[in-house]
């Protein structure tokens, strides 16, 4: 059983995110757990990034296909609480996003206690409410030239998870993975 669980971890660590194939679902924090359930079956626990993210069905299909190809058996559990946060993204994932041309999330929309910052939904991702109630403006560095001279051109880019930015130094547009 332990062998099957570690084999599943190794296998599923290789499953890429369907939207950003340079990062795995493990690095993004979507793959939460592989564990033995009370009934003796093995559960693979995944948490969708954004509710209603169209990629989620694809991720579940990819996970199922990888398990079937390896001749293993597991049940897929979609866990909605606690909700996925960009905090679960590994530093490796953030570095890979940057090299892929996507600016990784700058900071979390939740505070240190894990409470969602209520002001986030109406604020631009460049404006972050700090503890103490003061607004601070944080720029999103360009993933290509690292310039902080960037501007948001569209709050929703190719997917709802990302905003479209433009670098005012190298003039390249880029996606920003919004903190969540
Ligand atoms: Zn640039």
The CA-CA distance between the termini, in Å, is 35 Å
| CA-atom Rg in angstroms | 18 Å
Low-pLDDT residue intervals, each spanning 5 or more residues = 108-137
Q: Bin the helical content.
A: 10-25%
Report the biggest beta sheet as strand number plus sense, adding barrel if it closes: 4 strands, mixed
Element order: H for helix, E for strand = HEEHEHEEEEEE
Please give a structural write-up.
There is one protein chain. With 180 residues, the protein is α/β, with parallel strands linked by helices. The chain folds into 2 domains: 2-78, 2-Layer Sandwich (GMP Synthetase, Chain A, domain 3), CATH 3.30.300.130; 100-177, no CATH class. It has helices spanning 2-12, 55-69, 91-99, and strands at residues 31-36, 42-46, 75-78, 102-103, 127-129, 135-137, 150-154, 162-167, 173-177. A 4-stranded mixed β-sheet has the order 4-9-8-7. Strands 1-2-3 form a 3-stranded mixed β-sheet, covered by helices on one side. The longest helix is centred in the middle third of the chain and has 15 residues, at 55-69. Mean pLDDT is 82; it is low at 108-137. Residues 142, 144-145, 147, 167, 169-170, 172 line the site of zinc ion.
